[in-house]
Amino acid sequence: MNLQGIVAVSGKPGLWKALSQNKTGFILESLDAQKTKLVANLSTAKLAALDEITIFGYDDDIKLTDIFARIKAAQNVPDAKVDGKKLREFFNEVAPDHDEEKVYASDMKKVISWYHLLKDMPFFKEEEAAAEPLVEEVAPVEGEKPAVVKVKKAPVTTAPKAVTKQPAPKAASKPKAVSKPRRAE
């Protein structure tokens, strides 16, 4: 699943797709049927990218993408509106090492509702581009010198930069003529 550019906005329900960026924030489009547009100002809104969200675990945090993959493989995915006990049972199946004291029922409802929103999207069904291995291992042959290991460069990914419009330089203006005050006669 490819969740690049999908964000959750604090204070706004649902999920949003980042369309572009301006100098104050991002232009977002909702993933629901209304396709509502929103300009999220970075100084006032908090954005969380879905591919970077993690769930508290006992040993290590669990990536949300891993939980979505396990939910996709699960047989019976409950609705987000079922009671907390049933959600906890389901969450114990798909993320057995999550920290039950730190992961609340509201968090589980949010994850399940996000899954139901994303499961029919085409980008959710596609696989992420497989990265080439960084190191190619070569087995040594008896009686020969040790093999040289070739290192491949990692693919470079950059986020689009915001285009800011610079104000045009002001033309030099002529100083205004200063009139001398008249003397009273």
Explain this structure to me?
By secondary structure, the chain is an alpha+beta fold. Among the domains are: 1-50, SH3 type barrels; 53-127, Arc Repressor Mutant, subunit A (Orthogonal Bundle), CATH 1.10.10. It has four helices and nine strands. The chain has helices spanning 64-73, 84-94, 105-118, 122-125; strands at 6-9, 16-21, 25-30, 37-41, 47-49, 54-55, 62-63, 135-136, 150-151. The strands form three sheets. A five-stranded antiparallel sheet has the order 4-3-2-1-5, with no helix packed on it. A hairpin with a 3-residue loop joins strand 2 and strand 3 (25-30). Helix 2 packs across helix 3 (105-118). The longest helix is centred in the middle third of the chain and has 14 residues, at 105-118. The chain is elongated, with a radius of gyration of 27 Å. The relative contact order is 0.14. Mean pLDDT is 74; it is low at 129-138 and 147-166. Pfam families: DUF5606 (PF18347), DUF6852 (PF21186). Residues 156-185 are annotated as: Disordered. Residues 53-118 form the DUF6852 domain. Residues 156-176 have a biased composition (Low complexity). InterPro entries: BVU_3817-like_C_sf, BVU_3817_N_sf, DUF5606, DUF6852.
